[in-house]
Design goal:
Rossmann fold, elongated, 2 domains, ATP hydrolysis activity, 3-stranded antiparallel beta sheet, binds adenosine-5'-triphosphate
């Protein structure tokens, strides 16, 4: 009874999806041919075998063992099997992505019987990752516009682009939410199922002929899963697309949406064929499915070894299923179908590698980041508020310092604290950068733009915000604390602060590119800043800093140049009085006048004037170095 209720609720969901699908207005539906696949007839894979070096035994380990299959245009295929059976590995091989770390791949994948180059294959296919990797502060429409701008570069007119986007949004039932944001940790956005549909259409806008989906229903309840798969099925059927999706335990109705099933267990084929034939097939090999049973659940239960109460029995059942598949008439039919499909004669579609448009990509990325930067407070808003708070705090703690020698040490402390703490706080940029990076990795996999365009745009978008923060902070703290009160000194202070922030943000980008994990990137950036703080010249003057830290770290420490620059800016041209008793802390030529020339303070640190240009040059070099290293990491690291 309970299961019947479940089925009827799924049926309701199915009806509502159908209604949504067919509420598409006629005008928008006119664009539905945009996705039509008239060039890819079949996609087959033959004897796919993947071997890796086992992590523990260091011996060769077979992850996939001679896997075959063939799919025709318009078919939607489910890739199923128990956890660890090799689904992700097979999906990666089929999509021509890295199968697994250090894997050796054998076998062929053919499109229309032909073997296209990897770049040609990627031009006619798209991969939808399990992790949505969407920019949370963009609306559905904006996400689609940017995806379309990246994929079609300048080949579509704006009107045509808008028409195609509206048509896709409409046909995936997202019209009502089109202007809603995806959702950030602070602002709630669209639902999980809607996000998944958006991930799919943001790939469909690139007009793929073959669509790969990695667990498109993971994390969704059964009705949302059904909804997502129904929309995909509809699009595949209408446009003759090939869809291959790995999937875990689909409900009965979701399972029945698929045309074919690839069943794996322990890296071996256990079934390949129509979903409608699964029950009969298992019946004929001696495993009858009881009535009112979810077929997907039944099959997975049969193959389950890891969680079985009787492991020996399960293993022997699994071997039996694998052996019977090899001997089955269905496997022979598949071999014949593969033979026929490998001789198909339809020429491959024109898969000329689309030229990279570096400047167009940079402009589009800057535009996208700009929307994110003002809409997502995590990107810059929180930092702006934080720096303003810090400026007020500093300005009031170090309030109106006078030009008596008693102020020399507090002023020096303020210079150190301001510069070091500002760079420390740049760690607040880590989450935002990681979101952008995840989006970049996904887009690059699908050939939309490259690492140089991403890095350049990331640098450009930071400039106005960091400059604004430098001005804001200085306008408050500089005058409250009564630093060197000339316009020229103020502008130089702003410049040092700006370069400090620019370097700190570039360090965040480098660390988060090497370790794209929130906690690790945060910890390492904080550690690096702690190191730069310790050797920047304030804690231990460079004149007595031990040689290891001096020669290994202090010359490449951006904070040391900022500290030097600010110290020279403050002390080079001012004088301090020595108090009523005329006991000067520093003996300078002005001692007879009961004063200290600021240069005396600088001499203690070994700082010389007239080197501003050199220090600015070194700082820019450090920023460039961080960025180039970050770029190299992004180019080498594929995930
Ligand atoms: N270098 C390696 N050494 C040993 N085993 C490995 C190695 N690389 C991958 N594997 C194993 O290969 C198997 C296949 O992994 P894959 O991710 O393709 O499985 P899956 O079916 O997608 O799993 P899941 O459903 O849990 O995501 C896993 O059991 C994995 O642990």
């Amino acid at each position: 009874m309970a299961s019947q209720e479940h089925l009827s609720s799924i049926d309701d969901a199915r009806t509502s999806v159908k209604l949504d699908t067919f509420s598409t207005d006629v005008e928008n539906d006119a664009g539905s041919d945009d996705l039509m696949n008239s060039s890819v007839q079949s996609f087959l894979w033959n004897r796919i075998t993947v071997t890796v070096k086992d992590r523990e035994t260091k011996q060769p380990k077979l992850l996939l063992d001679s896997i075959d299959g063939v799919v025709k245009a318009g078919e939607m295929v489910a890739l199923m099997g128990p956890s660890g059976c090799g689904k992700t590995t097979l999906l990666n091989v089929l999509a021509r992505r890295d199968a697994a770390a250090g894997a050796k791949v054998e076998g062929v994948t053919l499109v229309n019987g032909d073997n296209p180059s990897t770049s040609a294959f990627r031009n006619l296919s798209s991969f939808v990752e399990q992790d949505d990797a969407l920019i949370g502060s963009l609306t559905i429409k904006e996400t689609m516009h940017f995806a379309a701008r990246f994929s079609h570069k300048n080949s579509l007119t704006k009107t045509e682009r808008i028409r195609r986007i509206n048509s896709l949004i409409e046909s995936f039932g997202l019209r009502k939410q089109a202007n809603q944001i995806v959702g950030t940790p602070i602002r709630k956005g669209i639902s999980g199922g809607q996000k998944r549909r958006l991930s799919v259409i943001s790939q469909l806008v690139t007009v793929p002929k073959i669509l790969f989906l990695d667990e498109p229903t993971s994390g969704l309840d059964s009705s949302a899963s059904f909804e997502v798969m129904s929309f995909i099925k509809e699009a595949a059927k209408k446009n003759h697309l090939i869809v291959i999706a790995s999937i875990h335990q689909p409900s009965t109705t979701t399972f029945q949406l698929f045309d074919k099933l690839i069943l794996l267990s322990g890296g071996k084929s256990s079934y390949f064929g129509p979903v409608t034939g699964v029950q009969d097939y298992f019946g004929t090999i001696g495993y009858n499915m009881p009535i009112y049973t979810n077929p997907a659940e039944f099959i997975l239960e049969l193959m389950n070894v890891d969680f079985s109460s009787n492991r020996e029995e399960s293993e022997s059942r699994l071997s039996d299923i694998q052996r019977k598949w090899i001997e089955s008439p269905e496997a022979r039919t598949l071999a014949t179908e593969i033979e026929a499909a490998s001789k198909a004669s339809l020429p491959l579609p024109n898969t000329k590698q689309s030229k990279r448009h570096f400047f167009t990509d940079v402009v589009t990325l800057v535009h996208r980041s700009f929307i994110k930067s003002y809409r997502d407070v995590v990107a810059y808003g929180i930092r702006i508020a934080m720096y303003l708070g810090l400026a007020i705090m500093m300005g009031t703690v170090w309030l109106r310092l006078d030009y008596d020698q008693a102020s020399i040490q507090p002023v020096t402390n303020a210079i150190f604290f301001g510069g070091a703490f500002m760079s420390f706080m740049a760690v607040a940029y880590v989450p935002s950068y990681l979101e952008d990076r995840a989006s970049f990795i996904k887009d690059r996999h699908n050939g939309l733009y490259g690492a140089p365009a991403f890095m350049v745009s990331n640098f450009i978008i930071g400039l106005p915000y960091l400059f604004f923060i430098a001005i804001l902070f200085s306008s408050v703290a500089y005058w409250l604390s009564n630093f060197n009160p000339t316009g020229d000194a103020f502008m130089k202070w702003v410049m040092w602060l700006f370069l400090d922030l620019l370097s700190a943000e570039s360090l965040v980008v480098l660390m988060s590119s090497i370790f794209p994990n929130f906690v690790v990137a945060l910890a390492l950036t904080a550690f690096a800043n702690g190191l730069w703080m310790s050797v920047n010249g304030f804690m231990v003057p460079p004149t007595i800093l031990n040689v290891f830290y001096k020669y290994v770290f202090s010359y490449i420490d951006y904070q040391s140049y900022v500290f030097k620059g600010m110290m020279v800016n403050q002390f080079a041209e001012v004088t301090y009085t020595c108090g009523s008793k005329c006991e000067c802390m520093f003996r300078t030529p002005l001692v007879a006048e009961c004063k200290i020339a600021g240069q005396g303070v600088l001499d203690q640190y070994g700082y010389h004037t007239g080197l501003n240009g050199t220090w600015v040059g070194i700082l820019l070099g450090i920023v460039l170095g961080y960025r180039l290293l970050g770029l190299a990491i992004l180019m080498v690291k594929k995930n």
